[in-house]
Amino acid sequence: MTAPTVQAWRDEQEKSLRADNSWLTVAGLFWLAEGPNTVGSAEGNDIVFPAGSCPAKFGTFFRTDRTVTFVAEPGVDYTVNGTTPKAGPLQVDGDGKYVPDTIEHGKLSFFVVTRQERIGIRLRDNDSQARRDFTGRVWYPHDPAYIVEAAFTPATNNRTISIQNILGYFEDTPSAGTVTFTLHGQQHTLEAIDGKGSLFIIMRDKTSGHETYGAGRFLFAAAAVNGVTTLDFNKAVSPPCAFTPYATCPMAPPANHLQIAIPVGEQYVGEHH
Prior knowledge:
This protein is mainly β. Helices cover 8% and strands 37% of the residues. Strands 10, 11, 12, 13, 14, 15 and 16 form a 7-stranded antiparallel β-sheet that branches.
C-alpha cells in the first residue's frame, strides 16, 4: 500500500471503532439464570444497567431453557429492531450465526447472545465510558517487508480447527485451509477459516502479550486465486476483547502461534494478558 492508502485504511478502522454500536459501546454482558431476570438502573435488579440510562425498573427477561422473552414494566417505552415491540421469544444471536432481535431504549440497545450452555444479554451504550475515553488505535510503522504471498491449500474431509474463546469454551470450527509463506528466510503455515468471502486468520507471534494483544490478532486475506493469496501483516488488528471486557473473542489456535515477531499492524497499549 502507498502511504496515503495505508492512512486511509487506518482511518477507516478508527472510524468503524468509534461509530455508534461499535465494540467501544459494548457496556455489559449479563448471563441469565433460568426463570425471571429483572433489569433496570436501580440496584437490586438481577441486571443493573448504567445509572440514568433507563427506568429504575425496566422489565424482566424470562429464560426457559434456550428460549428468552422480554416483558417491560407498564408504561416503559422501547422498540425491537426499530419498530413496535413484538410478543413471543426473542431471536438470539446463536453464537454469531443469526441476527438477533435488538431492544432499544434511548442510547441503549441490547440483545440475547448464546455461548454454548450460557445465555446472556449483551448491552450497548452509545454514551459508554469506554467510547468517551478512547484515545485512538496505535500502529507500528508500515513495513512492506511484511506483505507476502502465500500458497493456499484447501481443507479436505470437512476438517475442523478446535478454537478456544476467552470464556474457556472450545468450538470445532470448519477449516478453510492453510496458508504457507516465507518470512525472513523461514517457512510458516497458518490455519485459516472462512471469513465470508475472504480468509480469516487468528494468530499470535512473539509480540503477543508484550507489544500486541495477548490473545492474538485478527488478519483477513483475500480468497486465493490459483492457489495463491497475499498476507499483509500490516493489517493485523486487535480483536474486540482489546476494547471491551464484554466480548467473547476466539483465541489463536496452537497451530497459529508463530515463533517469530511480527512488529507491524496494530499495537496494544492496555493491560496485556
